[in-house]
Design goal:
Rossmann fold; 35% helix; hydrolase; hydrolase activity; SGNH_hydro
Length: 208
Amino acid sequence: MYADSLTWGIIPGTRRRLSFDERWPGVLEAGLNARDARVRVIEDCLNGRRTVFEDPYKPGRNGLTGIGQVIEAHSPLDLVILMLGTNDFQSMHRHNAWHSAQGMAALVTAIRQAPIEPGMPVPPILVVAPPMFDRPRGPIGPKFEGAQVSAAGLADALQATCRDLHCSFFDAGTVTGASKVDGVHLDADQHAVLGQALVEQVLDLMAP
């Protein structure tokens, strides 16, 4: 799981974090294990992480930097799930959906070229498009001002990228929306919905 604050589990309107069991990766893990999949979901989530872009105010938010070593460290992996893109539309950037999708393409390529040990499998990749913004508001409102406009078409752009690169895709916006509190993150009930919605697809991707 390589992602940002939506997956890290920030509680909208606060700087606190949901517990693992409440976060959608934890819900997914529980759902998979309930189906006798016997898996462990590994989270590598960083607040503010972009696909491939730098944060001018905080270092280390470029998702491309070091991703090969992250894959190497946790290999062998059965599946890599990417859920990024939200922070590509912070107000200091002038990006559109195409830019973010190109960033995701670069991440997919980097994962496939990671320096894993000889004989270890190159993992399949599932890209999850984050739900569309709902008028960012509250303390993070200025950070994401206008994001609901600049991010228009992101899910479609990511799906096209996945089609071109032959990796799997899921649009979180088909099952949930952005937080009712801040219009950006996921509320606790939305984590539960998303985690449960991914169980079947992940089972299929992990099938031998």
